[in-house]
C-alpha cells in the first residue's frame, strides 16, 4: 500500500502553519507590496514561529523536522505570501551547505543563530554571465596566507541586502575549473550589497546584487573541500532550492484556486453564479487537477529526500510541473475575474505577477527539462 495522506502530526503542523501565515504574515502583505521591502516584523515572526529551525538538526538548536515539513510550511506561507515563502526558501537553501558540508565548528558557530532567526542566510551563485551556466561565473578567489581573497559580482540574489550569512561560490583564479564555496558574514571587509532589483512580482522579498571587492575570507570559512564547491552548491540547489520553489508554487496554485472559487460563486451573470458555467468549471477543474498532481510530485520528492535518498531529479520534475502550473493557474484566475482581474484590489493580480517570477529561480523550466531528460534517458 502507498499511503498518500499526511500523518496526524503533519496535519496538525499544516494547520499551525496555516494559522501562522494567516495571522502573522497576511496582515503585512499590503505593506510589503506597497514598499517592495521585506518587513522586519515578518522575519521576526518567522523566527519566533521556528520556521527557520525546520531543517536544522536538533543538536544545533533546530527542530530537525525535515523536508516534508518544510514543504508543508512553505506551501501554507506561499498561499498568503509567495514573497515571504521565497525569503524563507532561500534562507534554507543558504544554510543547507553548512548542514551538509560544514565542519563541526562551522555548524556550532552558525546554525544556532540561524535556527532562531537571529541570523538570515542566502546563497550566491548566479552572476551576470548566466545562471544556467554556473561554471561561466567570473567570481574568483586566490590564497593569501591562511585567508582567501574573493572578487566578483553576484546578481539576482534573494535576501541580498538583509542576509548576514551568505554561501558564495567562486572559482580558483589559477585553476578556473576548480570551484570552492565559502560562508561569508555581513560586515566582512570587501563585501557589500549592490543594486536592488525592482521585480514585477514577489515584491515583498529582497533581490539584488552582492559585490565582492578584495573580500578577505578566513580559511576557516571554506565549506567542504577546496575545489569541490560546485558539488556543495549544486547539492543544496538540487534538493532544497528546487524543493523550496515547489512549495512557493503549490501555495500560489492553492491561492489561485481558492480565489477563483470564491469569485465564481459570488459573481452572478444570467441570474446565476458563474461557477455554474461549464467554461468556468473547466478552468477550476484544471487548476484542481494541477494542484493535486503537483502535490503528489512535490511531496513524493520531499519524502524521498527525508529518507536520505537522491531526490534532485524528482525535485526537477516537481519544480517544472508546479511552477508552470502556477503560471497557468494565475492566468486562469485572472480570466475568471473578468475585468476585476485587472484591478489591484483583487489579490489575483498579485498572484499573476508573483507567478511570473517563479520560473527562473533555482533553475529555469528549460534546465529542469534537461535534468528530467537525463533521468529519462539514464
Ligand atoms: C526572484 C529570483 C530570485 C533568485 N534568487 C537567487 C539566489 O538567491 N541565489 C542565486 O544564486 N540565484 C538566484 N536567482 C537566479 C536564478 O537562479 C537564475 O535567474 C536562473 O538560474 C537563470 O539564470 P539567468 O537568469 O542568468 O538566465 P540564463 O541562464 O541566461 O537563461 C536564459 C534563457 O536560456 C535558457 N537556457 C539556458 N541554458 C539552457 C539549456 N542548456 N537548454 C535550454 N535552454 C537553456 C533558459 O531557460 C532561459 O530561457 C534568482 C532569480 C530570480 C528571478
Count of helical regions: 11
The poorly predicted ranges are none
Q: How many β-strand runs?
A: 10
| Distinct ligand kinds | flavin-adenine dinucleotide
Order of helices and strands: HHHHHHEEEEEEEEHEEHHHH
Radius of gyration: 21 Å
By helix and strand content, what is the structural category? alpha+beta
Mean residue pLDDT: 97
Count of the separate structural domains: 3
* Binned strand content: 15-25%
Would you identify the CATH architecture of the largest domain? Up-down Bundle
CATH fold-level name of the largest domain: Butyryl-CoA Dehydrogenase, subunit A, domain 3
CATH-level-4 superfamily name of the largest domain: Butyryl-CoA Dehydrogenase, subunit A, domain 3
The main sheet comes to: 8 strands, mixed
Q: What share of residues is helical?
A: 40-55%
Head-to-tail CA distance between termini: 28 Å
What's the level 1 CATH class of the largest domain? Mainly Alpha
Indicate the multimeric state: single chain
Shape: globular
Amino acid at each position: 500500500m502507498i499511503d498518500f495522506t499526511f500523518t496526524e502530526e503533519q496535519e496538525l503542523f499544516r494547520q499551525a502553519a496555516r494559522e501562522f501565515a494567516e495571522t502573522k504574515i497576511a496582515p503585512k502583505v499590503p505593506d510589503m507590496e506597497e514598499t517592495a521591502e521585506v518587513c522586519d516584523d515578518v522575519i521576526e515572526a518567522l523566527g519566533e514561529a521556528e520556521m527557520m529551525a525546520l531543517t536544522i538538526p536538533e543538536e544545533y538548536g533546530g527542530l530537525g523536522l525535515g523536508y516534508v515539513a518544510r514543504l508543508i510550511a512553505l506551501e501554507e506561507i506561499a498561499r498568503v505570501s509567495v514573497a515571504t515563502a521565497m525569503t524563507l526558501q532561500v534562507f534554507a537553501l543558504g544554510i543547507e551547505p553548512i548542514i551538509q558540508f560544514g565542519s563541526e565548528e562551522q555548524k556550532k558557530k552558525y546554525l544556532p543563530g540561524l535556527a532562531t532567526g537571529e541570523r538570515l542566510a542566502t546563497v550566491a551563485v548566479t552572476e551576470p554571465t548566466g545562471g544556467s551556466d554556473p561554471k561561466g561565473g567570473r567570481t574568483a578567489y586566490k590564497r593569501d596566507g591562511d585567508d582567501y581573497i574573493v572578487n566578483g559580482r553576484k546578481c539576482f540574489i534573494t535576501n541580498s541586502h538583509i542576509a548576514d550569512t551568505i554561501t558564495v561560490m567562486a572559482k580558483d583564479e589559477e585553476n578556473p575549473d576548480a570551484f570552492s564555496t565559502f560562508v561569508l558574514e555581513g560586515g566582512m571587509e570587501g563585501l557589500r550589497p549592490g543594486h536592488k532589483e525592482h521585480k514585477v512580482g514577489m515584491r515583498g522579498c529582497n533581490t539584488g546584487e552582492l559585490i565582492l571587492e578584495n573580500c578577505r575570507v578566513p580559511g576557516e570559512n571554506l565549506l567542504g573541500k577546496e575545489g569541490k564547491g560546485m558539488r556543495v552548491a549544486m547539492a543544496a540547489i538540487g534538493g532544497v532550492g528546487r524543493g523550496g520553489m515547489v512549495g512557493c508554487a503549490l501555495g500560489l496554485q492553492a491561492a489561485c484556486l481558492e480565489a477563483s472559487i470564491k469569485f465564481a460563486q459570488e459573481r452572478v451573470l444570467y441570474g446565476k453564479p458563474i461557477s455554474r458555467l461549464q467554461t468556468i468549471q473547466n478552468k477550476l477543474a484544471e487548476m484542481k487537477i494541477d494542484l493535486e498532481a503537483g502535490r503528489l510530485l512535490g511531496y513524493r520528492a520531499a519524502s524521498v529526500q527525508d529518507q536520505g535518498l537522491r531526490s534532485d531529479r524528482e525535485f526537477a520534475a516537481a519544480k517544472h510541473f508546479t511552477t508552470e502550473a502556477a503560471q497557468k493557474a494565475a492566468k486562469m484566475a485572472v480570466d475568471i475575474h473578468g475585468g476585476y482581474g485587472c484591478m489591484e484590489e483583487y489579490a489575483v493580480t498579485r498572484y499573476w505577477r508573483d507567478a511570473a517570477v517563479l520560473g527562473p529561480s533555482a533553475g529555469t523550466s528549460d534546465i529542469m527539462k534537461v535534468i528530467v531528460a537525463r533521468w529519462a534517458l539514464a
